[in-house]
């Protein structure tokens, strides 16, 4: 008998997460404790529940720019090696609790040097936290692989430097590069030298595109920058026409993305908060999934969106009537699109994901 699709049962399913920001996933209690330890006095609340409410409500702003404003507080308490290690370690713990078996966690090292750390020291601390979290999980009998993407802020001028950082740490846990931040006025082509550097070094990268800005952002990310994946990419729906009789016509950009199997790192709850879509039910995720684009389910920012991978999947199930086979497909989509080596991806798909879903399907 098929296992019912409840939140508790979805938590039992293995998951692969490609788009999650370290500074958007702290525990509220940890933010408070780190603020107290390091003398950060700018928090808008002094207890964990109130602080969680602040982050959730402030992020639900209808604007990507306003959505990003609360990050000043999480970044503000992540300025020492100890704080970075703790946040990374707890990130792994929280993912294990949600049965995430593979995760690529991204963060912008340039935002964590206000206390005097070098970029390399910042990355060292985060990778050590991930590694220690993995070891603890393995000791407790859990399967999880956590890797890192280093992100450059698209409004700044350090993207080439951050790309070089990604290559320096490519054999130590960093598997790729990203640019993030407000899209309007900061097209990905401003950072062509960073992307060229990554390509010249046979390295992988994703680009936030098509979240708060339209098709030109996606076009540039793919045609000029050569992105391996798209962060969000919801505005691709503007290149898809659904006719009155249900027939669908893809524009040239949408067609090439589907033909090339370009992965979409979709973050439904976050997209509602930023105003990219009006509701989960109106999210283009289902249209893209039915058209067989390579869609993946992601959290974006677990604290800001008050979410987990299980909650994101449940919201999609409730909105679109998905079954276990759909959730398995989205999970395998993500695992196929991961930036680790092919044998590692295949092992997680064949030895972990498929067997565990077989038990749930019954």
UniProtKB/TrEMBL annotation:
Cofactors required: Zn(2+)
Site feature (Important for catalytic activity) residues: 232
Adenosine deaminase domain location: 14-354
Catalytic activity: 2'-deoxyadenosine + H2O + H(+) = 2'-deoxyinosine + NH4(+); adenosine + H2O + H(+) = inosine + NH4(+)
Keyword flag Zinc: yes
Stretches of the chain forming a coiled coil according to its record: none
Gene3D superfamilies in the record: Metal-dependent hydrolases (3.20.20.140)
InterPro entries: A_deaminase, A_deaminase_dom, Ado/ade_deaminase, Metal_Hydrolase
Top-rank lineage group of the source organism: Bacteria
Binding site for substrate: 21, 23, 181
Active site residues of this protein: 211
Keyword hit for Cell membrane: no
Keywords: Hydrolase, Metal-binding, Nucleotide metabolism, Zinc
Co-factor: note: Binds 1 zinc ion per subunit.
Binding site for Zn(2+): 19, 21, 208, 300
EC number: 3.5.4.4
EC top class, as a word: hydrolase
Task performed by this protein: Catalyzes the hydrolytic deamination of adenosine and 2-deoxyadenosine.
PANTHER family in UniProt: ADENOSINE DEAMINASE
Matches recorded under NCBIfam families: aden_deam (TIGR01430), PRK09358.1-2 (NF006847)
Family to which this protein belongs: Belongs to the metallo-dependent hydrolases superfamily. Adenosine and AMP deaminases family. Adenosine deaminase subfamily.
Protein name: Adenosine deaminase
Species this protein is from: Mycolicibacterium cyprinidarum
Gene: add
């Amino acid at each position: 008998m098929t296992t019912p699709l409840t939140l508790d049962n979805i938590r039992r399913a293995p998951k692969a997460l490609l788009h999650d920001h370290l500074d958007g996933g702290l525990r509220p209690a940890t933010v408070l404790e780190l603020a107290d330890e390091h003398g950060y006095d700018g928090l808008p609340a002094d207890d964990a529940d109130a602080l969680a409410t602040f982050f959730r409500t402030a992020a639900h702003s209808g604007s990507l720019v306003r959505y990003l404003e609360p990050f000043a507080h999480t970044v503000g308490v992540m300025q020492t090696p100890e704080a970075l290690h703790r946040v990374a370690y707890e990130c792994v713990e929280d993912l294990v609790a949600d049965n995430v078996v593979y995760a690529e966690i991204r963060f912008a090292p340039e935002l964590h040097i206000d206390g005097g750390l070098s970029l390399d020291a910042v990355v060292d601390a985060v990778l050590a936290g991930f590694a220690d979290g993995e070891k603890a999980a393995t000791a407790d009998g859990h399967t999880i692989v956590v890797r890192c993407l280093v992100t450059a802020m698209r409004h700044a001028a350090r993207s080439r430097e951050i790309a070089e950082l990604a290559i320096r740490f490519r054999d130590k846990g960093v598997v790729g590069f990203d640019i993030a931040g407000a899209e309007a006025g900061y097209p990905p082509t401003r950072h062509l030298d960073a992307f060229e550097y990554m390509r010249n070094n046979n390295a992988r990268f994703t680009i936030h595109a098509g979240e708060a800005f339209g098709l030109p952002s996606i076009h540039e990310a793919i045609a000029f920058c050569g992105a391996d994946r798209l962060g969000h990419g919801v505005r691709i729906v503007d290149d898809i026409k659904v006719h009155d009789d249900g027939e669908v016509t893809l524009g040239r950009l949408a067609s090439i993305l589907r033909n090339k199997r370009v992965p979409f790192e979709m973050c439904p709850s976050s997209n509602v908060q930023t105003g990219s879509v009006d509701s989960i039910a109106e999210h283009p995720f289902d249209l893209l999934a039915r058209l067989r684009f390579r869609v993946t389910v992601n959290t974006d920012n677990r604290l800001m969106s008050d979410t987990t991978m299980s909650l994101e999947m449940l919201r999609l199930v409730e909105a679109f009537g998905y079954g276990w086979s759909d959730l398995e497909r989205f999970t395998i989509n993500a695992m196929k699109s991961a930036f680790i080596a092919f044998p590692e991806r295949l092992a997680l798909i064949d030895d972990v994901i498929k067997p565990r879903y077989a038990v749930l399907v019954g």
